[in-house]
Hints:
The chain is mainly alpha-helical. The chain is about 70% helix and about 0% strand.
Amino acid sequence: MMRKQILLVALLAGLIATICYACSKGGGSSDPQPDNGFDKAAMLTNYADNLVIPGYTAMQSKVQDLDADIGTFLATPTDAGLQSAKAALKEAYLQFERIAVNQYGPAETYLLVNFLNTFPADTTKINANIQSGSYDFTSAGTVDQQGLSALDYLLAETGALQQFTGGNAAARKKYTQDIVARIKSLVDKTLADWKNTYRAQFVSNTRTDVGSPIGYLVNQFAYEMDQLKGPRIGWPFGKQSGGTVFADKCEVLLLRHLQSVGNRESEQLA
């Protein structure tokens, strides 16, 4: 299965390179790509209606489940409640990996990937925030102190249950609730924008130049591949990082992310 994914990605990379080269010819804001009988509007409609919007809708549902399970746990911290919250977090994280490749349009406006999945979480700053009770999740400087990675730390660290029942439990609970509220707000706004305004813009713009939906699709695919081979694989192993090993930057859901990128492109090419 893994070999099949790698071969698919290699073939797609070649295709993307060809498209990028073609898109770069002609320069300026003109659209150098002829239609050649290919229905680009239908392709974009398929992306919006069958991949992107359903993906964000599923993410919204997973976050709602996460909100409910964490709320139950925080109200009465028990080991069973903690396990349920962790299971809900895993489901939300897996769904996020399926939509992370859609970092354009509303997701780019709200910096969804940055705020939901900057890893590793800065545990020192998280604990300092909890202690002080002062933090601003809308600030770009706090991306490593919130999101799914921060929840993963709070719910899965050694002695997590005791942390939610000890002397500073109230502050820790509030911080956790604030993270979930922030995730929910960003996902809700991203989905609402897609449904209300951005879908129409997305499917109607069939240009292929920089800043067009097709340009976003190509560039985001290339970006995700660079992230996979560099920060998410190369850096943890000391490759492409001057020999310095960044073991804490290894993403546990890396394979799911790779499959998501490969599957998204193969679904469109089919």
